Amino acid sequence: MKVSGTIDNYKIESINLAKLGDHDKLISINDKIRKAINKSGGDNVTVTLYLLTSKGHLAKKEVLETFEDSGVLNAFNNLTEDDRNEMIGKITSLKSEDESKMILKYINQLNKNND
To answer: Label partner for 86 (CA 20 to 30 A): which of 5, 28, 75, 106?
Structure first.
């Protein structure tokens, strides 16, 4: 799985996430990045990642996998079919970085629905 984004505002581009178990992913922070953000092993960082897809747009399946990984798939499935289709349509019609921002918006919204 290839991603781009930031680690403590340090821009990273097209790096691989390693699969760790069924759902968890691992990102390797090399020495160059650690020096740039002035952090060492075990320090807390803020990470923002955007999934890169080969076709430039996320497919419905990838959006649903992201919702599942984020723990909001049940809340999504509890929406009406029209609301689900509208949400997926809005996400998949955007440019890659905008797709990711829209997904984050909906994950936050769906998390509130879980409460």
So the answer is: 5
